[in-house]
Amino acid sequence: MFQLFITQISVVRNFILVRADIARLPFVTSSVDAVHAGAALHCWPSPSAAVAEISRVLRPGGVFVATTYILDGPFTFVPFLSTVRQNIRQASGSYIFLSERELEDLCRACGLVGFKCIRNGPFVMISAAKPE
């Protein structure tokens, strides 16, 4: 089971830390201000299911921030090769490294906007928000 720690902030001094399965977050839809996933996205068995679940729980204007490692190269330009690469990695249980463009497409497909990426070699920090 892959887990994610979420901080739900209602008042600056009050917050709750929750340990949960990233694919089944125990929050009401549109109830979380922000989600941070530190160096985790590449470890999730299905990043698309996880980001969709994050998008579900974010309130309008809520922010998703994540750090992960990316993979660049010829896979990023040929969609068929990218799909084959991901299917092999998922079946084998190894890490799933997406390209910067794939991360942006993933956020967009899950309803998040304003994608930003700060890159330091293969390590990136991304952010996106749920529309107001």
TrEMBL record:
Lineage of the organism: Eukaryota, Viridiplantae, Streptophyta, Embryophyta, Tracheophyta
Protein name per Swiss-Prot or TrEMBL: Methyltransferase type 11 domain-containing protein
Domain of life per record: Eukaryota
Stored PANTHER family: METHYLTRANSFERASE, OS08G0411200 PROTEIN
Any one Gene Ontology molecular-function term assigned to this protein's record: S-adenosylmethionine-dependent methyltransferase activity
Positions of the Methyltransferase type domain: 17-65
SUPFAM superfamilies: S-adenosyl-L-methionine-dependent methyltransferases
InterPro entries membership: Methyltransf_11, SAM-dependent_MTases_sf
